[in-house]
Amino acid sequence: MSKDRAVEDNANMGKLQISNTIFTGGFNTVTRMHVIKLDIEQSYTDVSDDEAKDQGLSLLSVADDSETKDSAGFGSEVKNDFQHQPNFGEKTRRPLTRKFSVSPTILIPYRLLSIIRILLLGFYLTWRVRHPNHESMWLWRISNTCELWFALSWLLEQLPRLCLINRATDISALKDRFESPNLQNPKGRSDLPGIDVFVTTADPEKEPPLVTANTILSILAVDYPVEKLACYLSDDAGSLLTFEALADTANFARIWVPFCRKHGIEPRNPEAYFKQKHDFLNNEVRLDLAGDWRRVKREYDEFKVRINSLPETIKRRSGSYNAKEELKANMNPSEMGENSSDEIKISKATWMFDGSYWPGTWEVSGEDDHSRGDHVGIIQVMLPSSDAKPVYGSNTNGKHLIDTTDVDIRLPMLVYMSREKRPGYDNNKKAGAMNALLRTSAIMSNGPFILNLDCDHYINNSLALREGMCFMLDKGGDRVCYVQFPQRFDGIDPDDLYANLNTLFLDVNMRALDGLQGPYYIGTCCIFRRIALYAFSPARVTEHHGLFGTRKTKLLLRKVTVSKKEDDEMASQINQCALDCDDDDDDADTRSLLLPKRFGNSTSLAASIKVMEFQGRLLQELESKGNQGCPTDSLTATQEPLDVATVAKAITVISCDYEDNTEWGKRVGWMYGYLTEDVLTGYQMHNRGWRSVYCITKHHAFRGTAPINLTDRLHQVLVWATGSVELFFSRNNSLFATRRMKFLQKVDYFNTSVYPFSSFFILVDCFLPAVSLFSGQFMVQSFVTLLTFNLVDSITLYLHAILENKWSGITITNRWREKQSVVMWGTSSYPAAVLQGLVKLIAGVNISYTLTPKPATPKDGDDEFADLYVVKWSFLMIPPITIMLVNTIAIAVGIARALYNPYPEWSKLIGGVSYSFWVLCHFHPFAKGLMGRRSRALNLFYVWSGLLSIIVLLLSIYIKSSSETQNHMKFLFP
Ligand SMILES: O=c1ccn([C@@H]2O[C@H](COP(=O)(O)OP(=O)(O)O[C@H]3O[C@H](CO)[C@@H](O)[C@H](O)[C@H]3O)[C@@H](O)[C@H]2O)c(=O)[nH]1
Ligand SMILES: [Mn+2]
């Protein structure tokens, strides 16, 4: 698109908005869109003049076309420098990743143990079934069913752990291949593909802006070619608070990012970095680190104060503007078109610092067009994209904080986005936000790869993106739809009371899946291949790559999409789109108007097609530039110029999906209609035949926060478990509906979808000992057999865990926490999830999403774990509390009955009491959470009641056995 055209389109914004209305099809309301013009100097003054000019908060900065072309089209240079190039062939052929299998010394005993356990379980269960307890058949039946179920679920869990693997990356090989001079790239410019980073935030109260700001800073400072990186923040609250916090973050990044690059800082999240202890005398650091550290720290502290006082700042500013407005209106009522002398009511608006209305949500709710679920779409480029050439800073001369003469001071693109929301239309929660980002970014930067982060998950290792790229760009990498990293956490209490670390899932199960078809997508810390999100199958993409750079891309799109039958509609539509591009290449507007007609009034389909179109056009462009032999995936050798016209067109695309909203999530992008979009979205990709990869390393690539408050944790587990139930009921998840998914992978997905249903058996098992104590009927013939079995069972389980520790690092304590949490959640969140899922299935009721509150950054001197002791009531606590009470009472009743009974059945009593105590042990963290700060007393209670019951029992056995010597043998082996 020529410059003139862009200018013309800029002037014709009004016209474009009209075409948007047509574009949204049958929807009546005119879709409006705000592209905000801001001048950062007004609010943030401590920036030098020349810096302020390129400060970025200008209207959707237009990148210089000629520059961009230069950076992309290095074809001509190739010819000139051809003879002078040494041979790099060998160097670039090194593999980027390696795969290890777990050592046989661990694997063989591990498998042996599995077999032993299966045999033991088999023997025990057959014995149980063959020997009914005639005393109490109902107890026998119930406990049998429970045990059969648990055995089965253990088997389901164990099966996928047969092929264990570990992986490693070679970052230096990546550098050699993509960033060293070679024949195609004599200057050694980075040939790494572009990455768009998506961050989502939804509520500045539950998700403190300072936390989000730190995440953004860690992204802006990541070690990746600046011109290939773009960062998008989606704000589902449409809040000015987030907006201004982001603007100030972009500002602070000018200090923070060069500082990180200069000294090789890790981690590049200022809050986490400044918390560390520093050794400035270390030989490996630069001499000026101490000075720079002090100056940057002071800047950060001021930044922190500014961000934390933003709510107050905005409130005060809006207050004074509103008062002024009111005054004005009352002075000249005629101007307001009011004839009466009544006092005029002015709506309490939220004001931006330049004295204009904030188009998003206003603090005072209830305002039409300005509430959480009812506002226009907002898009703002906070930092423009940059050129491929490094820009070096200058030395300290009063203006500049630190000396950056040899430091590249460019910053990646940064965009604020808040999608349009209207009452009566489902916004599809996080999935909706992600898809809006997917479409917006397709038009603005179109990185072939996408990193997805929650607002509280920052990049902890600045090489993380490169690590991910190793998998994507390695041989065979084109079958990888995403690279998932484990979720690691800061700020978890040392005891990890509520099993937040998730070790069993993150360190064992996910790794085991990597030996099959790949780990689940867990919603954050995940790098996607864009094309996999566009519902392509890997086979198709391989074909794509095979032809890439050698034939006509258009031809290729047509050929590829027609050759596969299953992606029917979408394929033919893309096909048509490619044809359209052919017809009238120069008239983009006519084309976008044609699309809705051809495909009905479907906004979302049209939007998805637009995205496809862009991808196609990009390929074409590369093609036409003669970019022959360009490495696969370096699609962004061309940086899409960011011009006003294209971005204005994105307006239609980022708006909420209106009536056709199901189309997007059904076919393209993040899946709609489920509480947890993540597992389902990954499931679809695996089902299409993609594989995913687990990138788990000792240094944690990403870190985030987890709820350490019992109530928050219960609600988080409720959301996850409901997602699983939804997966179970989803049409896709029939064991027979699988298309290209490996069998064991399918088994694991099935297991995931089924675990909340075990809540029924867990509940029963927790009440059984109490019921038997109350009724005086014990559930098995002999507690001795039960205990022996439990012992053997536990031993094999923990031997397993020890072996698992060898390759996953999971400890016995972790294991015990996991076991406790299965019982705790199994009696609270899981049954609630099953109920919610059933209600949705039967009545079609939409389930609401509970956003997990993120802990705020503690101020100096604050208790880091204060949240741990906050007790908030939740209905989910009712069953566990009941179980704890019932079992405690049952123990007392049982003992009392035995003591006052002339013929007490001691063996039954011991069985019942120890079983009840065993149940109570599983609820220890739960009880601690309920007691809050008084939990120390609780520990004493547990120890003493344990000891006491043992003493009482031993005493009574002693008394009993000495008085009835004949019966002695009987009670030991009844
Ligand atoms: O309407 C919404 C709801 C949520 N979010 C964002 O989604 C992310 C995750 O939400 P959170 O409540 O923190 O979920 P968690 O339980 O902490 O997160 C885990 O579980 C979720 C559901 O499976 C995944 O989406 C997350 O990525 C994963 O970290 C946050 O960044 C939110 O801002 C939105 O953008 N819009
Ligand atoms: Mn979270």
Automatic annotation (TrEMBL):
Keywords: Cell wall biogenesis/degradation, Glycosyltransferase, Membrane, Transferase, Transmembrane, Transmembrane helix
Compartment(s) where it occurs, according to its Swiss-Prot or TrEMBL record: Endomembrane system
InterPro entries: Cellulose_synth, Nucleotide-diphossugar_trans
Residue intervals passing through the bilayer: 749-772, 778-799, 881-900, 939-959
Residue segments, region Disordered: 68-90
Bilayer topology annotation: Multi-pass membrane protein
Pfam families given in the database record: Cellulose_synt
Name of the encoding gene: LOC103494893
Domain of life: Eukaryota
Organism per entry: Cucumis melo
Name of protein: Cellulose synthase-like protein D5 isoform X3
